[in-house]
Fold:
Amino acid sequence: MPMRSKARTAVILALLVLSVAFALRFVMLDDSPPVVTFVGYTNEPTGLYRFAAFRISNQTRHHVGCVQGPLEVKSPAGWIEDNNHTGYQHGGASPGKEWVITLLAPTTNRVWRATFQFQATPPMRPRWQERIRSAFARIGVPWREKQKTYVVTTGEIAS
Structure:
Protein backbone atom coordinates (compact mmCIF):
# COMPACT_ATOMS: atom_id res chain seq x y z
CA MET A 1 0.00 0.00 0.00
CA PRO A 2 2.70 2.59 0.77
CA MET A 3 4.13 2.22 -2.76
CA ARG A 4 0.72 3.01 -4.22
CA SER A 5 0.43 6.08 -2.04
CA LYS A 6 3.87 7.29 -3.14
CA ALA A 7 3.02 6.70 -6.79
CA ARG A 8 -0.26 8.58 -6.44
CA THR A 9 1.52 11.48 -4.72
CA ALA A 10 4.16 11.56 -7.46
CA VAL A 11 1.50 11.63 -10.20
CA ILE A 12 -0.44 14.43 -8.46
CA LEU A 13 2.75 16.42 -7.94
CA ALA A 14 3.77 15.96 -11.60
CA LEU A 15 0.33 17.11 -12.79
CA LEU A 16 0.53 20.15 -10.52
CA VAL A 17 3.98 21.10 -11.86
CA LEU A 18 2.82 20.66 -15.47
CA SER A 19 -0.29 22.77 -14.82
CA VAL A 20 1.75 25.62 -13.34
CA ALA A 21 4.28 25.46 -16.19
CA PHE A 22 1.47 25.50 -18.76
CA ALA A 23 -0.21 28.50 -17.10
CA LEU A 24 3.07 30.42 -16.79
CA ARG A 25 3.81 29.86 -20.48
CA PHE A 26 0.67 31.75 -21.45
CA VAL A 27 1.14 34.50 -18.88
CA MET A 28 4.75 35.14 -19.91
CA LEU A 29 4.10 35.11 -23.65
CA ASP A 30 1.04 37.34 -23.47
CA ASP A 31 2.85 40.24 -21.75
CA SER A 32 5.48 40.88 -24.43
CA PRO A 33 4.46 43.58 -26.93
CA PRO A 34 5.73 43.57 -30.51
CA VAL A 35 9.24 45.01 -30.86
CA VAL A 36 9.76 47.96 -33.24
CA THR A 37 13.30 48.66 -34.48
CA PHE A 38 14.32 51.62 -36.68
CA VAL A 39 16.17 50.25 -39.73
CA GLY A 40 17.05 53.45 -41.63
CA TYR A 41 15.91 55.89 -44.28
CA THR A 42 15.18 55.44 -47.97
CA ASN A 43 14.08 57.84 -50.71
CA GLU A 44 11.37 57.22 -53.24
CA PRO A 45 12.52 57.20 -56.91
CA THR A 46 11.90 60.90 -57.63
CA GLY A 47 13.69 61.97 -54.45
CA LEU A 48 10.82 64.17 -53.29
CA TYR A 49 9.98 62.12 -50.21
CA ARG A 50 12.01 60.33 -47.59
CA PHE A 51 10.72 57.24 -45.86
CA ALA A 52 11.73 55.64 -42.58
CA ALA A 53 11.90 51.85 -42.43
CA PHE A 54 11.05 49.86 -39.29
CA ARG A 55 11.37 46.14 -38.56
CA ILE A 56 8.54 44.80 -36.45
CA SER A 57 8.98 41.54 -34.57
CA ASN A 58 5.84 39.88 -33.22
CA GLN A 59 6.74 38.64 -29.74
CA THR A 60 3.12 37.91 -28.76
CA ARG A 61 1.32 34.59 -29.01
CA HIS A 62 -1.29 36.13 -31.32
CA HIS A 63 -1.47 37.35 -34.89
CA VAL A 64 -1.10 41.14 -34.74
CA GLY A 65 -2.14 43.87 -37.14
CA CYS A 66 -0.34 47.22 -37.20
CA VAL A 67 -1.79 50.73 -37.52
CA GLN A 68 0.43 53.79 -37.66
CA GLY A 69 -0.08 56.25 -34.81
CA PRO A 70 1.12 59.84 -34.62
CA LEU A 71 4.68 60.94 -35.27
CA GLU A 72 6.14 63.21 -32.62
CA VAL A 73 8.81 65.84 -33.30
CA LYS A 74 10.96 67.13 -30.47
CA SER A 75 10.99 70.87 -29.91
CA PRO A 76 12.38 73.06 -27.12
CA ALA A 77 8.87 73.10 -25.61
CA GLY A 78 8.53 69.29 -25.67
CA TRP A 79 7.07 66.74 -28.09
CA ILE A 80 4.73 67.99 -30.84
CA GLU A 81 2.34 65.45 -32.41
CA ASP A 82 2.00 65.21 -36.17
CA ASN A 83 -1.30 63.47 -36.91
CA ASN A 84 -1.21 64.04 -40.69
CA HIS A 85 -0.26 60.46 -41.54
CA THR A 86 -1.96 58.35 -38.87
CA GLY A 87 -4.25 55.40 -39.36
CA TYR A 88 -2.39 53.69 -42.20
CA GLN A 89 -2.67 49.90 -42.03
CA HIS A 90 0.70 48.17 -42.25
CA GLY A 91 -0.29 44.51 -42.47
CA GLY A 92 0.39 42.02 -39.73
CA ALA A 93 2.28 38.92 -38.71
CA SER A 94 1.85 35.61 -36.96
CA PRO A 95 3.57 34.87 -33.63
CA GLY A 96 7.36 34.85 -33.92
CA LYS A 97 7.38 36.46 -37.40
CA GLU A 98 8.86 39.79 -38.54
CA TRP A 99 8.06 42.28 -41.27
CA VAL A 100 9.38 45.64 -42.44
CA ILE A 101 7.20 48.70 -42.93
CA THR A 102 7.96 52.16 -44.27
CA LEU A 103 6.33 55.44 -43.38
CA LEU A 104 6.73 59.03 -44.49
CA ALA A 105 9.48 60.55 -42.34
CA PRO A 106 9.44 64.12 -41.04
CA THR A 107 11.29 66.53 -43.32
CA THR A 108 12.61 68.72 -40.52
CA ASN A 109 16.11 68.22 -39.18
CA ARG A 110 14.90 67.39 -35.70
CA VAL A 111 14.70 64.42 -33.41
CA TRP A 112 11.45 62.50 -33.78
CA ARG A 113 9.73 59.26 -32.80
CA ALA A 114 6.90 57.11 -34.14
CA THR A 115 3.98 55.39 -32.44
CA PHE A 116 2.37 52.15 -33.61
CA GLN A 117 -0.80 50.45 -32.42
CA PHE A 118 -1.00 46.68 -32.63
CA GLN A 119 -4.27 44.76 -32.37
CA ALA A 120 -3.81 41.14 -31.34
CA THR A 121 -6.38 38.63 -32.52
CA PRO A 122 -6.69 35.29 -30.75
CA PRO A 123 -5.61 32.27 -32.79
CA MET A 124 -8.17 30.00 -34.39
CA ARG A 125 -9.01 27.19 -32.02
CA PRO A 126 -9.59 23.52 -32.86
CA ARG A 127 -13.22 22.45 -33.00
CA TRP A 128 -13.06 20.54 -29.70
CA GLN A 129 -11.89 23.70 -27.87
CA GLU A 130 -14.73 25.70 -29.39
CA ARG A 131 -17.20 23.09 -28.14
CA ILE A 132 -15.80 23.39 -24.60
CA ARG A 133 -15.99 27.16 -24.86
CA SER A 134 -19.64 26.97 -25.96
CA ALA A 135 -20.47 24.60 -23.09
CA PHE A 136 -18.97 27.00 -20.56
CA ALA A 137 -20.88 29.91 -22.11
CA ARG A 138 -24.18 27.97 -21.84
CA ILE A 139 -23.73 27.55 -18.07
CA GLY A 140 -22.78 31.20 -17.62
CA VAL A 141 -19.02 30.89 -17.20
CA PRO A 142 -17.31 33.70 -19.13
CA TRP A 143 -14.50 32.76 -21.45
CA ARG A 144 -11.76 35.36 -21.55
CA GLU A 145 -11.08 35.94 -25.23
CA LYS A 146 -10.53 39.67 -25.31
CA GLN A 147 -8.53 41.30 -28.07
CA LYS A 148 -5.40 42.88 -26.69
CA THR A 149 -4.04 46.20 -27.92
CA TYR A 150 -0.40 47.20 -27.68
CA VAL A 151 0.86 50.75 -28.21
CA VAL A 152 4.58 50.96 -28.94
CA THR A 153 6.55 54.19 -29.25
CA THR A 154 10.03 54.08 -30.75
CA GLY A 155 13.04 55.67 -29.15
CA GLU A 156 14.31 59.02 -30.40
CA ILE A 157 15.35 59.04 -34.07
CA ALA A 158 17.67 61.67 -35.54
CA SER A 159 16.69 63.14 -38.90
Summary: The longest strand covers residues 63-75. Residues 32-153 form a domain with the Immunoglobulin-like fold (CATH 2.60.40). DSSP finds two helices and eight strands in the chain.
